[in-house]
Amino acid sequence: MSQKPILLIGAGGHARACIDVIEQAGRFKIAGVTGLANEVGGKVLGYPVLGVDADLPQLLKEFPSALVAVGQIKTAALRIRLFELLERNGCVCSAVVSPRAYVSPHATLGAGTIVMHGAVINAGAVVGRNCIINSQALVEHDVVIGDHCHVSTAAVLNGEVSIGAGSFIGSGSHVLQCVRIGADCLIGMGQSVFAAVPDGTHLPIAKLAP
Question: Is the pLDDT of residue 1 over 90?
C-alpha cells in the first residue's frame, strides 16, 4: 500500500511524538514539518523544517494531508487556529492511530485527531476533530469528547463522561462516570473529578498531602 505524504504543523516535543506514531502506523510518509523562523532549514528527527505558519497556504497546495502537531495545555487557541487554516485550504488529515493503541470499531474519531501509544478508546466513544488522546489515556464506553481537546497521559475518562470543546484533561486525572466537563476547561494533573465542571473552569494540579 502506497503511503500518502503528510505535512506536520509544528516542530516541538509533541511533533516528535506524532512523528513516532506516524512512522509506526505506516499509513503516511512524512514530507516535512513547519516551525519557527529560526528552525527553517533544520530537521526534526530527520525531517526537514520546510517553512513557518505564513508559508502554509503555499505548502498546503503541495500536500494532500496535514496534521496539527503542536501541543496543548493551557489553551487550545493555537491548535484551533492552525486546524481552521488547514480546513480553509481544504487540507485536513484523517485520524491517526498508533498501532500500539486500541480503538474500538464501534468508536468514532474526528478528522485531525491523533491517538498515541497505549491509549484505549472503547465502544460507543465519540472523539471530536483535532484532538490529542495521549499515551496510556483511557476513554471508556460512550464517552463524548468535543473538538480540540487534549486528554493527557494516563488520564481516565469513565463511561458516559462528556468533555466540552477545547478542554484539557491533565495527566493521571480521573473523571467519574457520567460527569460532564464543560468547554475550555483545564483539569490539572492528578485531579479526581466527581461532579459537573462548568465551562471555562481551571482546576490546578492536585498536590500530594505533606
Answer: no
C-alpha cell, 172: 493521571
Q: What is the pLDDT of residue 73?
A: 86
From residue 106, alpha-carbon distances to 96, 127, 180 in Å are 16, 12, 22
Mean pLDDT, range 34-40, rounded to an integer:
94
Q: What is the pLDDT of residues 81-97, one digit of tens each?
A: 999 999 998 887 889 99
Largest CA distance in the chain: 56
Domains of the chain plus CATH, in order, are: 4-88 (3.40.50.20), 94-203 (2.160.10.10)
**What amino acid is encoded at 186 in this protein?**
L
Record the cell numbers describing residue 120, joined without a space.
484505549
Contacts of 156 (CB under 8 A, 6+ apart): 137, 138, 140, 173, 174, 175
Region 155-174 average pLDDT = 98
Query: In 3D, which of 142, 173, 176, 145 has the Cα closest to residue 160?
Result: 142
**Which three three-digit cell numbers place residue 170?**
491533565
